[in-house]
Amino acid sequence: MCIKRLGSATVSLSSPPVITAAAAIGGKKEGQGPLRDCFDRIIDDAYCGCQTWEQAESALLRQAFDLCCGKAQLSAAALDYLFAGDLLAQCVSSSFALRDVPAPCFGLYGACSTIIEGLSLAAMAIDGGYADHCAAMTSSHFCSAERQFRLPLEYGGQRSPVTQWTVTGAAALILSAQGTGPAVTYITTGRIVDAGIKDAGNMGAAMAPAACETLTAHFHDTGRRPADYDAIITGDLGRVGHGILMDLCKREGLDLGKNCTDCGILIFDPREQDVHAGGSGCGCCASVLAGYIVPNIISGKWKRVLVAATGALLSPTTALQGESIPGICHAVALEGR
Amino acid sequence: MCIKRLGSATVSLSSPPVITAAAAIGGKKEGQGPLRDCFDRIIDDAYCGCQTWEQAESALLRQAFDLCCGKAQLSAAALDYLFAGDLLAQCVSSSFALRDVPAPCFGLYGACSTIIEGLSLAAMAIDGGYADHCAAMTSSHFCSAERQFRLPLEYGGQRSPVTQWTVTGAAALILSAQGTGPAVTYITTGRIVDAGIKDAGNMGAAMAPAACETLTAHFHDTGRRPADYDAIITGDLGRVGHGILMDLCKREGLDLGKNCTDCGILIFDPREQDVHAGGSGCGCCASVLAGYIVPNIISGKWKRVLVAATGALLSPTTALQGESIPGICHAVALEGR
């Protein structure tokens, strides 16, 4: 077995790349939530000055990418690889956002796990000696996602209590071989787990089994315990999925402890905001990571954080055909200096 | 700049990983074409024994993956990473095909460039020391793709002469650190290029500019010339896109020569098969690579081949909104021992 592998799902990085810049943009609702001060920019207009919600989502992503390059003081052409994806069919938010960016681009599909999938591949590209600087980015938009995956917004359908609210937001991270910032030390990559959930309104239940498997693999492969982390943050199980995850992990003998929370829980205030089980969408974990987790590591509040992003591999076509919704979860360990 | 980078778009592999196994499955039409003997299996039933075309596509992919593992004499659990994606919204062909496979999975979206995107990332994962064995795979299906991207099949719409025929097929490759087979020596990763084409029936024109840019970058970065390759094979520009590519490259001072052809041209016979401009779809380049290119390198017919897979980043939603269709092209150099 090659030397950087620790087990079936985890690799360690010999020269851990660092997140040298991060930028997050949120929509109006996100700007009214508990993390309102964590966004670099809040866009109140759901159309973001564009003509369609798809264009708006793409514009948010491009703004986040441009802001991030500015913070890193790098031109887009200085990036060796971009890793990008989103929820829209055929990942058009990313494709359109990056269509005039002069850097090689790997398109990803990991649903809401995309930001950690991108960060994982970017870290391997840098530590492996193929790149000095990479960007990982993703986006989601309540309006473009809801009408694609569930119902036309104009229909005004009643939402069940277990549903989550797709975050309108985008975030970009720049990972570099040198520099200061949180380092990516371990990468635990998930497999596709299908627990048989068929309710397209209950993403938390569909994703929690994948999160349990990836977290269990991470602790098994690294020999670490949950207490070794100042925070274990999943994204985006929401309140329902988080509860299921805690139960599933206990059955596996893994007590995640009080430091475990979820981006979908952090981003909205359930008392003030009518979001049912919490936030979801690629932009949820990505913007919480860029705007909240990374700054808290830089400030020294947290030394070690495990971020485990979950994705529900849902398609409206197959959901209508009666298929179940597979889930996936990718995790990275981030460590301050 | 890190030592493995040769230029803005290309990296070289210090210990080139090798394609130790490859498997291709085709549909009925593919089994009647010039490459009929290159497929490991031909499935005449468009439903592949399933109830929907989406399930059928997923079944083709799973069969290709299982066949490939069998050829490599590896269990799926011995694979360190899977790299998979497809054309269906939210990449469900891959997700469903791999939902009980016990190996970490990175989901990709590169449209018809997916197999080379996967091979590129797999090669970096192995050469970088993160994996011993990886699989790259993808699929497409005429019926699931046409109804998703264009018109219901029942409508029986007239197809324009520039359209391509989406290949029903799937292929999987296993890349390993050790073993015999064609080695991946250079990886040239494309950027997103948007030439402003808005005709969802003319994929070749949408993708040719990206192919021109990636090939130009490859020869610039490596210092190689087209004559250094026994074959330069794009996938899947078809006849229309191939002609545009040759013209665009000539304008850049790059004569691709007579050894340049395209998977979309190779897979069907235009005199016998009514496919207009040729084949397309993720399964086109993937099955031609697995069933034709790899065996020709192993047999010694070709020593060095440049495979440049093109993807049209088309979404039915944005096409109807009047947006253009960005393209991308990823290339790898394959070399016999």
Concise overview:
By secondary structure, chain A is an alpha/beta fold. Chain A has nine helices and 14 strands. In chain A, the strands form three sheets. A six-stranded mixed sheet of chain A has the order 1-9-14-13-10-11, with helices on both faces. In chain A, strands 3-2-8-6-4-5 form a six-stranded mixed sheet, with helices on both faces.
Could you please describe the fold and organization of this structure?
The structure is a homodimer of 337-residue chains. By secondary structure, chain A is of the alpha/beta class. Chain A is built from nine helices and 14 strands. Chain A has helices spanning 53-72, 92-97, 114-127, 142-149, 203-222, 238-251, 263-266, 282-298, 316-320; strands spanning 10-12, 18-27, 41-43, 81-86, 105-107, 133-140, 165-166, 169-176, 183-188, 231-235, 260-262, 279-280, 304-312, 327-335. Chain A has a six-stranded mixed beta sheet, with helices on both faces. A six-stranded mixed beta sheet of chain A has the order 3-2-8-6-4-5, with helices on both faces. The first copy, chain A, has a two-stranded parallel sheet with strand order 7-12. The longest helix of chain A has 20 residues, at 53-72. Chain A is globular and about 55 Å long.
| Gross geometry of chain A | globular
Give the SSE order of chain A as H and E letters: EEEHEHEHEHEEEHEHEHEHEHE
Structural class of chain A: alpha/beta
Count, helices of chain A? 9
Biggest chain-to-chain interface with counts: A-B, 70 and 70 residues
**Ends distance of chain A:** 29 Å
Radius of gyration of chain A: 18 Å
For the biggest sheet of chain A, the summary is:
6 strands, mixed
Strand-residue fraction of chain A? 15-25%
Oligomer: homodimer
Mean pLDDT of chain A: 96
Major sheet: arrangement of strands of chain A: 1-9-14-13-10-11
Low-pLDDT stretches of chain A are: none
How helical, in percent, are the residues of chain A? 25-40%
